[in-house]
Amino acid sequence: MKAHHVQTFNNQTLLFSLINVTLATTLMFGNMVRPGVYAAWQDPLPPRLRINNIPADRVVRFRSEQEHDHFRLLDHDGDFLLIGAKNMVYNVSAATLSVRRRLEWRPSESDVKMCRLKGKSEEACHNYIRVIAKKAHDRVLVCGTNAYKPKCRDYALLPTGKSSGHNSHTQRGASNGEFSLTEEKPGEGLCPYDPNHNSTFTFAAPLGYRTDGDLYVGTVGQFSGADPLIYRKPLRTEQFDLKHLNAPQFVSSMHLAGFVYFFFRESAVEYINCGKAVYSRVARVCTNDQGGPHKFKERFTSFLKARLNCSIPGDMPFYFNELQSTGPIVEGSYRGERARLIYSVMTTGSNSISGSAVCAFRLDDINAAFHGAFKGQEDKNSNWLPVINSKVPEPRPGQCVNNSKSLPDVTLNFITNHPLMDQAVPAYLGRPVVVHTGFSYRYTYIAVDPQVEAVSGKAYDVLFIGTDHGHVLKVVNVASLTQTSDSGQIAEPVVVEDVLVFAPTRISSSGSRAGEKSSGSTGSTNSAGAPIAITNLVVQRSPYEQKLIVVSNNEIQGVPLFHCQRAQSCVDCVRLQDPYCAWSLDERKCTHNWRRDRHSSVQSIEHGWDERCGVNSRPHPNSGAIVDDSRGDAAADDLGLERNHNELDGSGSNTVIEATGPFLSSSRMYPAETLAISVTTSVVTSLVIGFIAGYIFARRCKNDIEMDTGPEDYTRYVDIQRMNGLMTPDLGMGAYGHELSYAVGGPRPINLVLNKNGKPTNHLSNPLPNANNTMQQMQLQMNNLAIHQQATLENKTTLQKVKKIYL
C-alpha cells in the first residue's frame, strides 16, 4: 500500500511539473519580440496636444438651412470652394466660408413621382449634385442624381449687368453675376443614380480647352447599380466583366503625364476561389486612347490595374485592404532621393479587427507594377498565376500608342482577359507611415501640406487625417528623412495634435440639443447624437491666413493649421515637434512667425527637446501632452472618453500631464522591449517559486503517507470492506478505538450482513494485526471470510439479539 501511494503521487507530481515548465516556456518565448516581425507594429502614439474646444473667434463655419444636405466638396478653385448638396450648388469663399453664389436645381415633379413609384424613399428622390467640373472660368458642367434619373447641365456665368432675363433657366447668384443654362443632357455614365454611391471624376485638359471628351469618370450605371464603369465619351471599360471591375467603390482620380489614374477598392477576383476579400486598386488608362477596331471601338484598349499593398511586414503580414482616401501627388526629398508620393488612408474591413493606417506609394513603383508581369487564370478552376513572357503579345498590351485603332486583335484580346498585374504596389519604405488599431475611431480622409520647412532647414510632410468621430489628427512624417531614431529603433511619426472639430451632442427630453453651441463655436451636432464623420479636408493657404477646411455631411468648418500659443514654455513648445511652431528666445513665446529670426528660434522636430530650454528639457519617452479640456466632463462622456481629472488645474489653465493616446486612458504606455523583458522576468520568477513550493509540498505529502501507513491502516481497510458488505464485523474486533460486536446469549457470532448465524468461530483469540505483517493478516482474514460465508448458509437457527459496546 505504501509503495503504491508513493509511486502514484510521484507520477502526478512529475506530470504537473512538466505541464508548468511547458506552459512557462511557451509564454516566455511567445512574448519575446522578434526583430523584423513584431517590431513593425507601432506603440500607441499619444498626441502632443489635444484640443477639445477652439475659441469661436478662430473658427469659421458654413451650414445650410435645410436638413441632410449631404455636402460634397467637388472642386477647390484657389480662394473658392464648389460644394454639391441636395438640390443646390454653393460657391463658398475659402477664407470666410460665406456663400458668394448659389445655384438651385430641383428635379421635376414627374421625375420625383417616377422615383417614388420605383420604390425609393422621399429623401432619395432629390437631386444630389455629384459632379461640378469647370470647363472655363465662365463655364461649368454640373451633374446630379435627379431623383434616380441622372442629368447634366452646362451653365455659363454672366458678367454683372448682362442679365438674360429671369426665367426658369436663369439663377441669380448670392452676389454679383448669374448662372445661365446653356445645355441639358442625360447624365448616365457621368453621375450615379444613387447619391450614396462613391464616384470620382477629373478633367484631362487645361482650363479653357476642356470638352466633354476630356472628362474621365468612375461611377456606376443603371438604376440597380449593377454596371460599374470608367467612362470617357465615347469609351468605357468592359461591361459586366468581373475581371475589369467587380463592385468597385471609387475613391479618387488624377491626370498625370499622358495617363489618368483611378484609385478604388473592389472585391478581389483573384481571391474568388478561396472566398471573398476586398483589395485596394490603382488603375490607369491612356489619354490618347481612341478605342480599338470592330467590337473594341467603344472600349478602352489601355486599361490596366494593380493591387495596392499596405501592410505590417512580418512572417505573416497584416493587411489594410480597404482604400478610403488619397492625397494629391507630393514631390520632395526623402532619405536623400527625390520621389513623388501619394499618401493614402487604408483600413481593415468593417467586420474585421478595427484598424487604420496611412501608407505612401511612390509613383515610380506604381508605373513599375504596370510594366511587370500580368496575372491570369487558365480556366475557372485554376489558380491565378503570373503569365510567362512568351505568351505576352507584341506590341505590349496597356502601352500608349499613337493609333489604338490599328492594334492587332491578339493584343486586344489579351488585355481584355488579363487587365490585372501580378505584382502589387509596395508601400514606400516598406511599412505604413502611421497605424491606429482599436474601436475608438477609424481614419476617413487625408490632406497633405507637403515639404513644410523647419528651423533646421529640413522639410517634412505634414499630414492631416480625418476620423469618423469628428477628430482631426496632425501627423509629421519624421521617418521620411531618417530611418532610425537616437535609440536605434525605427523612426516613428509624431502625432502633434488631436483636434475635436465635430462633436456629437445629447438630445434633451424637450427635443432640443443639450449643450448646443453658439453659431461661432466649434463642435457640431446631429439629431441622433452619433459621431460625425469627416468626409473631406483641404489645406487652404493665403498670404494672410493658413486654414484647414473640414467637411462633414451637413457642415463645413475652417480651423487653424497650428496652435502654437497653447504651449506656454520653451520645453512645451519644442516638445510639440511641430514644424509650424518654434520658441522665440527674444519674445519668450511659442510662435509660428519664427522665419523672421531663425537664429533665435528653438525647435527640434526629430528629438522634441533642446538644451537651450534648460538642463531638464529632455523629456521621458511618451511623456507630456498639453491638453485643453475646457469642454468639461459632459463632452468627454459623449465621446466615451476616460477623462483625467488632473489635466487642468484649479484655474482652468493648461497643465502638462502624462500623455494619452486618442480615446485612451492616461496610463503610461511602454515600448515592446520593456514589455518583453517584464513578461520574461515574471515567468522565470514564477517558475522558480512554483518549483520551490512544489518541492516542499511533495516532501510534506510524502511524510504524511509514511506516517499514515501503520497498524490502524489495516483496521481502516476492514471498516471500509465491512461497510461494503464484504466482511463480518468480527474482523474489526480488537482495533484501536473501533467498535466490538458480540452476541449476548448465543454461542456463535452473528453475520450482520446476511442477518444469519454462522458456525462458531473464535476470532477473539486471533492476535491483533501488526504493522509488519499487514498483508499476511489480510490474506488470512479473506480466507476466514469465505469459510464464514459458507457456514452461514448452513445455519438455520433463529437470529439472536446483538448488543454493541463502544470502547
Structure commentary:
17% of the residues lie in helices and 30% in strands. With 807 residues, it is an alpha+beta fold. Among the domains are: 2-36 and 674-708; 722-805, no CATH class. The chain has a 7-stranded mixed β-sheet, with no helix packed on it. A 5-stranded antiparallel β-sheet has the order 7-8-9-11-10, with no helix packed on it. Strand 36 and strand 37 form a beta hairpin. Helix 1 (2-30) runs antiparallel to helix 7 (672-708). It is globular. Keywords: Disulfide bond, Glycoprotein, Membrane, Neurogenesis, Transmembrane, Transmembrane helix. GO terms for molecular function: chemorepellent activity; semaphorin receptor binding. This is Sema domain-containing protein.
Per-chain topology:
Layout: H1 2-30, E1 49-51, E2 60-62, E3 72-77, E4 80-85, E5 88-93, E6 99-104, H2 109-117, E7 129-136, E8 139-144, E9 151-158, E10 170-172, E11 178-186, E12 200-203, E13 215-221, E14 227-232, E15 235-236, E16 249-256, E17 259-267, E18 278-286, E19 304-309, E20 311-312, E21 318-319, E22 322-334, E23 337-347, E24 355-362, H3 363-370, E25 375-377, E26 384-386, H4 409-417, E27 425-426, E28 434-437, E29 443-453, E30 459-467, E31 471-476, E32 494-500, E33 536-541, E34 546-551, E35 556-560, H5 570-575, E36 582-584, E37 589-591, E38 601-602, E39 625-628, H6 633-638, E40 655-657, H7 672-708, H8 711-723, E41 740-743, E42 750-751, E43 756-757, H9 774-794, E44 802-805
Parallel strand pairs: 1-32, 1-39, 19-27
Antiparallel strand pairs: 2-35, 3-4, 4-5, 5-6, 7-8, 8-9, 9-11, 10-11, 12-13, 13-14, 14-15, 16-17, 17-18, 18-19, 20-21, 22-23, 23-24, 24-28, 25-26, 29-30, 30-31, 31-32, 33-34, 34-35, 36-37, 36-38, 39-40, 41-44, 42-43
Subcellular location: Membrane
Transmembrane segments: 675-698
Protein name: Sema domain-containing protein
